[in-house]
Amino acid sequence: MSDTRPGHAPMDQFTVVDDCLQVGGIPLTRLAARVGQTPFYAYDRQVMTRRVESLHAALPEGISVHYAVKANPMPAVVTHMAGLVDGLDVASGRELRVALDAGMPAAEISFAGPGKSILELEMAMAAGITLNLESETELERVAAIAEKTGETAHVAVRVNPDFELKTSGMKMSGGPKAFGVDAERVPALLARIGELGLHFRGFHIFSGSQNLRAEALIEAQGQTFDLALRLAESAPGPVEMLNIGGGFGIPYFPGDRPLDLGPIAEHLESRLPEVRDRLPEAEVILELGRYLVGEAGVYVAEVIDRKESRGQTFLITNGGLHHHLAASGNFGQVIRKNYPVVVGNRVQGTEREVVNVVGPLCTPLDVLAQQMELARAEIGDLIVVFQSGAYGYTASPTRFLSHPEPVEVLV
Ligand SMILES: *Cc1c(COP(=O)(O)O)cnc(C)c1O
């Protein structure tokens, strides 16, 4: 455990009884039998519920929380989240169908993403959701569809801000970007929306992901409010929604500290009066993915073989990179670090050892844990990767090497 403990304890989301991890209150060995196969992903609905409740309790009154479906689009998860949050953000036509199936009202669904197809734009307009426009071309396409079908186009402008979210896992703004319309070009776009007579909803300003530093998030949120207030002066109608992005991170690696919501909430509270005064109709929205679901999920694989090689022990499992690219370190990490891992059916174990946990793929990239101290595992034991509720299954190349796919359960 030494390498998962400093800074955070992801296992705190779950209980351990008789040295066996419980997910959704079910001992992992029993859950594995119930699922009927390994590997699998298990998501704990109670952990998601607690997370959204504590976030709402920390945030000032009147800040809405949206769930970014791409973090975990499993329909059962989206349906559960739909009952907890104020809206859903989708990034494809298929995610849109999942969001609508989850029962979220169209007025609370928005669709962002560059390169939306004509079909996706038509689906979105037929459903009556809000389209976050990513370019001038997209605006003209939307207007043409509105003209053809007689449907109302509800549009917001996704802005590529003139600042960035510092020290982010993934920067998505500032400088030249594929996302959104450059802030300096937004006034002209707003004028065109007015000319075309579309229903203007507001702004979407998302500047980055996976940030654990409250100060960096506060700085970006402050700049986001400033930018939105400035752009609102050129708006063709009242700003009804102001999506200020998210970027809240979760601790993955040794030394990572959970995000401190306190100062973020204080800062939001301090800016809200001015926003309410100048944009009285605006719903202020935080859109979050991994922060809401990432810690609620585990990935479980089974030990198929134990091997020694020149002084190191290798646990070979039936799961790996093809199911969980992020845990293998190949989803945007520069230096590979271990996700928190335990042997789920002997969490502490009496005997400990330092091992490499690898998958069955014929590539040295297929690693789930490198030189990590775990309980001594035998063939048939269950390896658990924590922090796997977001960007797991659907962010992985499941067809690589043609092994069976994992299954997903919500418990
Ligand atoms: C991916 C994405 C999110 C979710 O990011 P997380 O890091 O999971 O919170 C939110 N908004 C937009 C526009 C995105 O592209």
TrEMBL record:
Lineage: Bacteria, Pseudomonadati, Pseudomonadota, Gammaproteobacteria, Chromatiales
Entry keywords, A to Z: Decarboxylase, Lyase, Pyridoxal phosphate
Orn/DAP/Arg decarboxylase 2 N-terminal domain boundaries: 48-293
Residue numbers carrying N6-(pyridoxal phosphate)lysine: K70
Superkingdom classification of source: Bacteria
Active site: C362
Family recorded in the similarity comment: Belongs to the Orn/Lys/Arg decarboxylase class-II family.
Protein name as catalogued: Pyridoxal-dependent decarboxylase, exosortase A system-associated
Record-annotated Orn/DAP/Arg decarboxylase 2 C-terminal domain positions: 40-389
InterPro entries linked to this entry: Ala_racemase/Decarboxylase_C, DCO2ase_PEP1, De-COase2_C, De-COase2_N, Orn/DAP/Arg_de-COase, Orn_de-COase, PLP-binding_barrel
Gene Ontology BP terms: lysine biosynthetic process via diaminopimelate; polyamine biosynthetic process
Keyword Lyase included in the entry's annotation: yes
